Amino acid sequence: MRHRDLLRLPLLLAFLPACSGDPELGGALQAAADRVMAEAIVVEAMEPARLALEEVAATELRPRQAYVVEVRSGESLALYGRWLGVIPEAIAEQNGLDPYGRIDVGQRLKIELDAAAQAKFETARAAFSKGRIDRFFKQRGGVHRVIEHKVERGETVLGIARRNGRLPLWVMRHYNPSRDLDSLAVGDTIKVPLMADRVVSQR
Q1: 3-state secondary structure the chain
Q2: 81-127: pLDDT as tens digits
Q3: Could you tell me the domains of the chain?
């Protein structure tokens, strides 16, 4: 419906009382007013759908690029799909994977995302990671303190984690995000959280 048709509506309604003596003219004006009102209702009802289509079109026009995701412990294609609002099969297809198979920690996946989707992904990922670490801390009574451990000859991150309260590797990665824990060298320093339940058990 054209915008000027809506502008005519108040004028049509204003003339209706003046046409009470001319039933034919009054009927024509009433019919015209009813038609404009009906079209206005239809336009209003379709507005959400129009806005949604515009948003889809704008999304499709956003430049996309291959966003490289390194799989972390606890993550899955299903989680990635939930965070991005897509089906996991789409991500699997982009990477030549079995949508129902497993993905390994450290594996690199490429996902076509625009800048907004990348930001959405990282926000959801950070929230997931925080929730996971918070639940772990709660189960272990919290963190007593964080120490800095200097790597000695023959040590591995798994051995260090085991000796300091059997910490999962993903907890060690959480405290050392910029460190390659799989390639530690003698003299490297890493952070190790001492859990409250371990400190209590040693007293």
Answers
A1: CCHHHHHHHHHHHHHCHHHCCCHHHHHHHHHHHHHHHHHHHHHHHHHHHHHHHHHHHHHHHCCEEEEEEECCCCCCHHHHHHHHCCCHHHHHHHCCCCCCCCCCCCCEEEEEEEHHHHHHHHHHHHHHHHHHHHHHHHHCCCEEEEEEEECCCCCCHHHHHHHCCCCCHHHHHHHCCCCCHHHCCCCCEEEEEEEHHHHHHCC
A2: 999 999 999 999 999 999 888 899 899 999 998 989 999 999 999 99
A3: 3-61 (no CATH), 64-136 (3.10.350.10), 142-201 (3.10.350.10)
